[in-house]
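hey can u run this one w/ hypoxanthine bound, need the C-alpha cells asap thx
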Amino acid sequence: MPEDSTSLPIYERVEHAARTIRARFSEEVRVALVLGSGLGAFADDLEDSVAIPYDEIPGFARSTVEGHAGRLVLGKVEGTPVAAMQGRFHFYEGYSLAEVTFPIRVFGLLGVSSLLLTNAAGGINVAFDQGALMIISDHLNLMGVNPLLGPNDARFGTRFPDMSEVYSRDYQEIAVEEAHALGMELRRGIYAALSGPSYETPAEVRMLRTLGADAVGMSTVPEAVVARQMGIKVLGISCITNLAAGVIDQPINHEEVMETGARIHETFKNLLRRLIPKLQ
Ligand code: HPA
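ok here u go:
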C-alpha cells in the first residue's frame, strides 16, 4: 500500500486509514464519538489514551474551525474503548460530504457499532433554554445535498438505505434514563441541518419551526446518514448553545456558542461518562 492513497478508490482509502489507526491503538473500539463545537474537552479525559492528529491519518481532512482541535483520541471511558473525534469536518469549510463523512466510514471498518454524534445548535423550540441538552429524535436534511450521492460501493451498504429510525430509539431511552439518574433535564427534538456558515435569518428560523424543527445546526446529519448506511446505531445530542435568530432579539456569534459549550461541559461530561458504557 502506498503512503499516499489519494488515488485509490474510496473503500481502499478507508481501509488504509483504518489500518493506520489500528497500528496505533490495539483495543477493539465499538463506540465512536464526534465532539462538536465547544464540547471537545471530553476527549482530554479518556483513560490510557493515544491522540492521533488528523494529518497523520491518510484520507482525513483538516479541521479549520476555531474550537475544533483536529485529532482523533483513542482511549477508554469507564473501561469501554472509544474513538473520539476532537473536531469534525463541516460542509461549510468547503469539504465534500464524502470528505466530511470519511471518518465515519473508517469507524465502520474498525468495527464500531455505536456512534455518538454531538453538536452545538441554535434553539428553535421556545421552551428550550440556552445551555439545554437535546436528544435528537429525528432530523431534517436541509443542506441541499446527501452524503451518499455518487457511485455506491456495496461493501459500505445498500444504495437506498432506510432512514425511518436514524437515531436509535433504544439509545434515546438510555440517554433519558441516565440523565434522570443524574437529576438532569434532557430535551428531545428534531434537528434541522443547513449548510451554513452564516447563521439563519429570523424568517428562516420561523420557516424551520413551521417545518417541525426544534434546533438548527450545520453538521451531524451527513455523519448520521452514512453511519446508518453502514448499519451503525446512532445517538445524537445537541447542546443548545444559543437561541436561534429572532427567538430573542439578540445577534448570534461563535464566541457565545463556544462559551455555552464550556459552561455546560461538566454536566455534558458526566452524562457521557455514564452513557457510553451502556451503548453496546
Ligand atoms: N444556527 C446554526 N448553527 C448553530 C447555531 C445556530 O443558531 N448555534 C450553534 N450552531
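The chain has a mean pLDDT of 93. anyway lmk if its weird
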